[in-house]
Amino acid sequence: MKIQMKLKYKIQFLIIFIAAIIYLIAIGYISISARQATYRDTKALIDSKVNKFAFEIQDKLNQNITAVRTLALSFSNYDILPKDEWLNVVNHMYDKVAPAFPSFYNLWDSWELSEIDSSWNKPYGRIVNQHFRDKGIIKTAQTKRSLNGDNEIYTNIKTSNREMVLPLYFDVFVEGKSEQKLMTSLISPIQKENGEYVGVVAVDITMDRFQEIINEIQLENLEGSYAFLLSHKGKYAGHPDSSFLNTKAIKNPTAQESFNLFNKLDEGKAFSIIHKKDEYNKDYVSYSPIQIGKTGTPWFLGISAPVSSIMDEADRNFIISLIVGIIGLIILGTVIYFITRSITNPVEQVTKVLKQLAEGRIDDKMKLSVSTGDEIEEMAEALNTSIDGLNKKNIFASNLEQGNLDSTINLLSNKDELGHSLFQMRDSLKKAREEEEKRKKEEKRRSWVNEGLNKFADILRQDNEDIQKLSDNVIKNLVYYLEATQGGIFLMEEDDEGNNFLNLKSAFAFDRKKFMERKIPLGDGLVGTCAIEKQSIYMTDIPKDYMEVTSGLGDSNPDCLLIVPLKIEEEVMGVLEIASLKKFEDYQIEFVEKVGQNIASTISTVQVNIKTQKLLEQSKQQSEELSSQEEEMRQNMEELKATQEEAARQKAELESLVQAFHQANYIVEYDLEEKITEVNDKYLRLLGLTRDEVIGTHHSYKMKLTEAQKKDYKKFWDELRAGKIKKDTNVAEVGNKTFVFAETYTPIKNEEGKVFKIIKVAVELSEFDLSQAKSV
Prior knowledge:
By secondary structure, the protein is an alpha+beta fold. The chain contains 17 helices and 24 strands. The protein has 4 domains: 1-360, Beta-Lactamase; 362-459, no CATH class; 462-659, Beta-Lactamase; 665-776, PAS domain (Beta-Lactamase, 2-Layer Sandwich), CATH 3.30.450.20. The strands form 4 sheets. Strands 1, 2, 3, 4, 5, 6 and 7 form a 7-stranded antiparallel β-sheet that branches. Strands 13, 14, 15, 16, 17, 18 and 19 form a 7-stranded antiparallel β-sheet that branches. Strands 9-8-12-11-10 form a 5-stranded antiparallel β-sheet. α1 packs parallel to α9, α7 (307-358) packs across α8 and α9 runs antiparallel to α10. It starts with 6 loop residues before the first helix and ends in a 12-residue tail after the last strand.
């Protein structure tokens, strides 16, 4: 039986039926594609989050290991000082570093005992210095360990001789403390220039602050998600469940029989897996590496999210799409007559673009041009907006990959999570680059200062018996090192009337030496003012005629002028004046001030030695003149009275000279058996001893002598007995005080020309650098 139906109804039925089929297919395809896209986007968001937080943890760990590496490099010159002095220097450095790093639980080092103590010849044994925190207070300890052999852990450290991250361990550092902390140790070796192992600098850090980061990592709309931290050996260093800490992860948590988690960790690259917990529950786990210094043993940050949670949102979108489709079909049946033709083409265009998006294609040519004036047009515009946003994000990500961190994009809305994540990643990369540039700049400045101090320490050890040569060498090298244009060194001198003035000892400018006579009274001009106020002067606004009128360095017109006093404590020995065409940085000014202190100390020592030698020569000359006068008196009795009066006058002058000499210096007399026979009162007052306590004691009494110094000791006295004048710098310990003396030993001969005693003239250097002093 045929069903009778008008043609228009058949057409409407056919159109409705076909349109319904097409509509259902389109909605179904869109829903499924959107579900898959949501799943992919969520995984990409998890990967982005794990990369971000991994970089944050990596930055914290690298800050710690960089500090340890810097200390290890600084200690590579350990052999320039004696053991006790060097260990004191090391601990002073720790006193500064430990408070600056609150994350340090225990800052320590280990020195091979054979490198520190020349009497120890065994291949094991070490000295350990520790700066550790106990209830917020930094405490110190120094112990000797491995005296009977190295343990397995330290043997591995010594054999590897490279930066290391020790495996995780629980440690109760403070005795009697019940709380155990999970920690690790970052280690950097101390090496000689040839790479030979000397010891290590290390820091113990707890996992508490990283556990806080782990606990704070939350993924919105992903119930059951959590983060964890794995060490290189696959042990949990951080986990929301504390029972997992210091336990090993599962070797193969996937459904793949050949998968090995630890092999993937050894590759040091980011990866993700599907963790099959049981037949029905699976987790998506994303891993991101954390590269720690130069260890080559990366840690990994992981974020785990249940696949069911990831799919919940996609499923909700899928169900909503189906419901909307059903409702649309009901509405479509009533209005299909009016919109059949207008809906076909736009739907096909939208479907085509969605397919291209599902395939990962992004291009401005995919944008739609729909002007139906209804929801189809709005959907096309929304799709066009999405295409614009994804295309710009793609370009933005490419710019970041190429290093263009100033690139930016406009967010689609305040809820544009992908855009926010890209901005956060850009800001993190920019911050990391800025911090790295700042670190390199500071490291370059410290290196410049240290090299300069070492350079001028060598210069000051040369020509230290000739002030003129020393001044020429110092000012020339200082101008070169600062890349300045002019420089001058003024020394404090005294005129015949006893008035102090500054004398231009040496000047250097424009790559040639200038010999100039220039005397500046104290308080006159900037140089004289600097000597009076004892403070550095730095000027950048200099009049054109200033240098010619005030500075004494010529008629140049530099952009800046630096004047630094050469002082020991509050005593000014002279003034440095440096002019430059470019401005000095703060660290350069501090460097010149430090060099100025060293110059002042050296000049003081040289001047004392020159004065002492001059007094001795005057005393010898006057003694010879007195003997000649006595001989003349015996030969000429007629001039006896006049000669006696002249002798008495010269004797009084000599006694006054000797008295002044004793008041200005520390005088000790020794017999040829190296024992003290006489000592002046000034020396006794300084040492706090009585004359009876000193007379008869040996020259080496109260002095520290190394094996090498004992070997040279006999040669030193043999040369004195042979009549040779000796100069030295010695260290003496009396009570709890340490004294440093610049000493001149002069053999005294009798009438037969034989040495019968030794006179020592000493000057105490209260601020003398102990690293330059040696015991005899």
